[in-house]
Amino acid sequence: MVNVETILADKDKANIIRNIYPLYLYDLSEIYGNIPNKYGIYEYESVKTLDEQYHI
């Protein structure tokens, strides 16, 4: 059995979550059939950059 602990990322480590989030959405796209928007972002159509993705 594997024990998993969830902790909130502080401001010093938040960039790690921001860096892997697009990869997470990409991996989920194979399961759910999602495709990137016209800007190449796996989010709503209005999102043009990864920076915008974090401010939704």
Secondary structure class reads mainly alpha
Number of discrete helical segments? 2
- Roughly what percent helix? 40-55%
Q: For the terminal residues, how far apart are their CA atoms?
A: 36 Å
Tell me the strand percentage band. under 5%
Oligomeric composition of the shown chains: single chain
Give, in order, the helices and strands: HH
Low-confidence stretches: none
Mean pLDDT equals 88
Using only CA atoms, what is the Rg?
14 Å
How many extended strands?
Answer: 0
* Sheet having the most strands: none
Q: In one word, what is the shape?
A: flat
Short synopsis of the structure:
With 56 residues, this protein is mainly alpha-helical. The chain has helices at residues 14-32, 50-53.
Describe this protein with a few key phrases:
single chain, 56 residues, mainly alpha, 41% helix
Model description:
This protein is mainly α. It contains two helices and no strands. The longest helix is centred in the middle third of the chain and has 19 residues.
Give the arrangement of secondary structure elements.
Layout: H1 14-32, H2 50-53
